[in-house]
Amino acid sequence: MTSAGRRDDSADYARILGSGLPLIDTRAPVEFAKGSFPGAVNLPLMTNSERQKVGTCYKQQGQEAAIRLGHQLVSGAVKAARVQAWHDFAHAHPEGYLFCFRGGLRSQISQQWLAEAGMPYPRIRGGYKAMRGFLLQTLDAAVADLGFLRIGGLTGSGKTEVLQQLANGVDLEGHANHRGSSFGRRATPQPSQIGFENALAIDLLRKREAGWRTLVLEDEARLIGRCALPLPLHQRMPAIPLVWLEATFEARVERILRDYVIDLCAEFVSELGAEQGPSGFHERLQEALRHIAKRLRPERARELADVLAAAFAAQQRGEGFDGHRDWIRVLLREYYDPLYAHHRQQRDAAVVFRGDRDEVLHWLRRQTLT
Fold first, then answer.
1. Do 363 and 243 meet the contact criterion of CB atoms below 8 Å apart?
2. 100 labelled catalytic
């Protein structure tokens, strides 16, 4: 801490990222969209077009000319508005930091302008690039050093619910914002691959610092929607001991009805409004059914599409969601369960425990005490 309460710039990435401190990302929106960190808000020094112009100037005329152009582009009312946005954020989050790509000119200029506006604010030395490198190292070290257990089970058995009951559970699907199946897309978009990896690395960092030596995650394929598991974790996954979660067929139907139908519809209504939400939800289910239709007999796929349409029509008439159980039952019996059965021999060899929800929770807690 410097004099008069001014905080020093920092390179303590473990503390900054592990604590989830608020961050000002001063990079351009196009950079931010490729991936940032939880808690980061994009308040850029330059827009995408301004950054492009400055970059072109730098290549053609050098650094000094590029800096002069940048100050011309971001001046007057434009500069005042951006400084005010930083000032408001810093005032609301006095514990935070700001950063740019390498901790260089952009964050230095932002910091200088904030100080001139009466709001000293520290920056992260090394910027985004250094923090990203730190998180990649964190991922590799965690996968190499920590113990893991994975939860498997038929579709709808409640694996995510079990994970969420465990302090040492790692919700890969939560980080990917996807439920991990053909019907797993949410109403909101998935993060970028970089954003997914960063959030996962921070989760592992926090759990290691909390003292956990064994973590529990769901048995996943390489892809969760469009997000790919980090290669070291994917390569290790088959060797991780498997805990098999058992549930009755009807319990699975009810859970899928809740998660993939009722809750998903509510998500679409929240995102698109009461008028457009239900139709967006219906289109998403139709899209998912088309995606797996090639694995069903053509006539069966057409029948299921009709059942789905009838269930949605009943829902729209105010008759509730009950009709959706019909297509859910068919998909479990004719699509999802046969997929699991195809790999049963390989899976069974890795199983170290089987049980229902309470039994699995009890066993996992006994195995993974810190």
1. yes
2. yes
CB 332 within 8 A of CB 252: yes
CA angle 18, 23, 24 (to 5 degrees): 160
Q: What is the CATH number of domain 146-367?
A: 3.40.50
DSSP state of 365: H
Residue 3: pLDDT above 60? no
pLDDT at 273 over 60: yes
Helix (H, G, I), strand (E, B) or coil at 187: coil
Distance CA 274, CA 97 (A): 39
Give the CA distances from residue 360 to residues 157, 162, 368, in Å, rounded to whole numbers and listed in that order: 12, 8, 12
pLDDT tens digits, one per residue of 304-340: 999 999 999 999 999 999 999 999 999 999 888 888 8
Model-level pTM?
0.90
List, by residue range, all CATH 3.40.50 domains of the chain: 146-367
Among 57, 100, 227, 265, the one annotated catalytic: 100
The residues with which 228 forms a beta bridge, in sequence order, are: 223
Q: What is the CATH number of domain 3-132?
A: 3.40.250.10
Alpha helices in 248-369 (DSSP H): 249-256, 263-292, 298-316, 324-331, 337-342, 344-350, 357-367
Token pair 């994975």 in the structure block, residue = 150
Which has the closest alpha carbon to 266: 326, 188, 328?
A: 188
Domain ranges in the chain with CATH number 3.40.250.10: 3-132
